[in-house]
Design a protein that fits this description.
single chain, 106 residues, alpha+beta, Pemi-like Protein 1, Chain: D, 2 domains, 13% strand, elongated
């Protein structure tokens, strides 16, 4: 989407609302300006709260993609109760421990 804005006093620019909506920009968001051969490149800069940074690590994002694929492929189980879920986890742990004792990888 292309848009035109005018440079006003103090070099201020008003970002067209259609562009801001399309890019999900909100008041207070930061924009990075970069001079290129073609003109000015403007990139939104979203900062991540330090307590949430783990979610955006490459390793975690790879696990998220794998989880999404598992869901699409039907590789999951549903439980009727918390107790059923807990029992399934415990059985899984017991199986892994038994396989570890005989040298089989899970």
């Amino acid at each position: 989407m292309a848009a035109i804005a005018r440079i006003r006093a103090k070099r201020q620019i008003t970002l067209p609302s259609e562009l801001a909506d399309e890019l999900h920009l909100e008041e207070g968001d930061l924009l990075m300006f970069e001079a290129t051969r073609e003109g000015i490149l403007i990139r939104p800069q979203k900062y991540i709260d330090a307590t949430q940074a783990w979610f955006w690590t490459p390793k975690w994002q790879a696990m998220e993609r794998q989880a999404d694929e598992d869901l699409r492929a039907g590789r999951y189980r549903e439980f009727d109760s918390d107790e059923g879920f807990r029992e399934s986890l415990e059985a899984s742990i017991d199986t892994e421990e038994e396989q570890a004792h005989v040298g089989v990888e899970a």
